[in-house]
Specification:
Blueprint: H1 5-17, H2 31-44, H3 50-58, H4 61-64, H5 69-76, H6 78-86, H7 95-108, H8 111-126, H9 133-151, H10 156-177
Length: 182
Amino acid sequence: MEQYRNLLEAAAFAARAHRGQLRKDGETPYVSHVFRVCLIVRDLFGIVDQRVLTAALLHDTVEDTTTDFDDIEERFGKDIARWVALLSKDKRLPEAERERAYMEQLAGAEWEVKVMKLADMFDNLMDMRHLSAEKQGQVLTRLRLYLECLRCDPPEETRRPLELVGRLFDEVRTAIQSGGLR
């Protein structure tokens, strides 16, 4: 059972790190997002690598909490810390520069990072009904750019996740355009 220790510790770590944060609906604890991303990686995308699942649980800790790279590396190792860092935007940069740098990170990342980002996108697409129509359009535009960046020369491990996220993206876009996403 030792093989599950890091995964279970990551779940507790993420819950503590995101304590008090809420999703866009103002009611759902934010940590539910990272749990769903982990489940999407495992159950929908079929990835059972414990390191990937651990990093999926931690994917927003550096970007959205006071956790830093060293905290993750010390507790979960260098690979997981590097993956989490690649999934984190540098909020010190102006938005346009930050997004450009983030897409470059994603494009050059290992397949594990790309799969986690696709799971993150899948969950965010599923949760868009809680956003205003204007915000839905903004998020959809950003997710389309991420999807395009991830589709460039995709590794084999990302092909099925890309297909699933692409289909959901098209469904959500169609629903938004017809005024039916709620």
